[in-house]
Each structure stands twice: as C-alpha cells, then as structure tokens.
Amino acid sequence: MNDRFWRPISIDCIDPGLFPSVALYLKSTGNYVLYKNEERPFTEDDRRRLERNFTEFLYVRTGDLEEINDYLENNLTEILARDELDSMAKGRILYQTSVNYVIDVFESPEIASNLARSRKLIQHLMHYLTTDAHALESLQSIVGHNFYIYTHSVQVTALNLLLHEQLFNVTPDEMIDVGIGSMLHDFGMIFITEQVLDKPDALSQVEYYKVKQHTQKGYEFLKRNGLNSEVALTIVRHHHERYDGNGYPAGIKGDNIPRSAQLSALCDVYSALITDRSYRKASTHADALKMMREEAKGGAFNIELFKRFEEIITARKTNSTA
C-alpha cells in the first residue's frame, strides 16, 4: 500500500474522549490494518493494550490529518500541561504537531503565510528545548516514523533554536524568526520532483543542479508573500552557503554569511547525516561529528563556530543518555 496516503500519530497524542472521531490503523508487515473505526471511541483500555504491546504509533489517512492538526494545535497548551504525561511524551506530542504542520506547509504552500500557527509552535518548542535535558532524545523517536523532509525540517528547527539560545543573546522575536526560517528552510523542495528527491542512486549533474535551486526558489516564493522577516528568509536562502565560498546559491564566504545561516548550515548537515536516507544509512552521532570536523578543517564551516556546535550537541547527547 502507498505510504503517502497514511500518516503516523504517536499514541501520546491520542487523548481518550477528546481526540477526533477518525479511523485509526496499525501497520503490520507493510499493510495498514484497521484498529478502530471512526464510530468507536479510543479508550484508556486501548492505550494500555497498545503500551503492553510496545506500540508507539497508530496511523491515519491523510484526509483526516486536517481535523487532527486542528485538535492538536488548538489544545497544545492544555495537553503539554497535563501532569500525567512525562517529558518524553510531551516532546513526542510537540514534535508530532510540528511535523504535521510542516507536512501541511509542503503540501499546501499557502499555509506558509499563516504565521500565527508557526509562531505558536516555535514558542512551545523554545520552552521545551530550554527546560528539558531530554528534548532532543524525544525528537529522535519521531524521526523514523515520518518522511525524511518533514522530520528533518523539525529537527533542524530544534537544533537551531537550541544553538542560538546558548550561543547568542537573541531577542525572543528573533528566536521566533530563527525558528520559522529553520522550519521552512527546505521549503523550496516543493519545486523538485519526487523522482529526483527519492532517487536511491547518485544524482546526475542536471538533477543536482535542480536540487541546488531549492534555496533560491524557496526564498523567492516566501519573499513574495511579504510576511516573513529577513532573518527567516536568510536561513531559507543561505543555509547551503559554505565558509570557503563553495556553497550556493550566492557563493558568499566567511563572515559575510549571516550567523543564522552559518548555524543553520551546521544543523542541516548534522541532521542529514544522522538520519536514514534512500541512498545511505544514518551515521552515528560520533561519525557525523567526525565528518563535519574534517569539513570544517577543510574550510566548509567556521572552525570556532563548529567547535561550539560540537560541544553543545555532545553535551545534550550525553545528558539525554545519562
């Protein structure tokens, strides 16, 4: 069955008695099997049964996602305040809601102009990332259950917010702009065909050229709506620039690259390396940093900024497994 017609939903997001009346499915050996129809409510017994079977996710049809997104976003503050949920569960709910938002944006680009939705999500992410040592760990549990481009966007957002908060004296408004730019950084990928994006083999020169256009095309589309800040637009346009000038689309170099774009580049590369792709398996945290360290020595990144990035990410990784 075509996975694109289905979306995973963490069972932490399914509040008995409040969750929308939609059909829920289990995934078994590649098939989607009805768990409950839209007429039967999801109960606490259901939750306990799924937990006993170590089931973390159920699935819904894409046509039901709008109703679910409305429920999650409208009730997110109350959900995250529930005492019976531990911090990992709250993280999964928050990241799930953010991933669903990114899916909305990529599939219906006009939603990118709904800044109220994105600002609210970024504010919740900022609070969670700065108050919970396990924030990145709960995100990792979501990554393997969604399409790469969407979870990658949320992962880069989380990393970039964390780095900006710890490295720079950034105002709350600028932090929101950093978050929005990070969440939309790969928005230009909507202009690239699925055949190219999902290709398991090496891209041809023509295909690679088309992929490289995503930064400029995403920037131009979002700039036209006139609602995003220069900070957000800079991240969208320049997250593939490199410190030695060998990046794109403008080939700017050194500290002529805005700091938000430099940090975004580090977060983008790290997230890409630690995630499974159609053409390679994920690298470990240590191997990813080793590869990035070599790139930094070769001039791709500001070496001092990379060292700070490495320290913070490693410290967070150590804390989450302690």
Helix/strand layout:
Blueprint (H helix, E strand, L loop, with lengths): L5 E5 L13 E5 L2 E6 L7 H9 L4 E5 L3 H16 L6 H21 L7 H17 L3 H9 L4 H20 L4 H12 L10 H4 L7 H8 L1 H11 L5 H9 L20 H15 L11 H13 L5 H19 L1
Antiparallel strand pairs: 1-4, 2-3
Order of helices and strands: EEEHEHHHHHHHHHHHHH
Any idea what the shape is? globular
Q: How does the helix and strand content classify structurally?
A: mainly alpha
Major sheet summary line: 2 strands, antiparallel
**What is the CATH architecture annotation of the largest domain?**
Orthogonal Bundle
The Rg value, from CA coordinates, equals: 20 Å
Residues in helix, %: 55-70%
Quote the CATH topology of the largest domain: Hypothetical protein af1432
Whole-number mean pLDDT: 89
What is the CATH superfamily of the largest domain?
Hypothetical protein af1432
Report how far the terminal alpha carbons are from each other: 40 Å
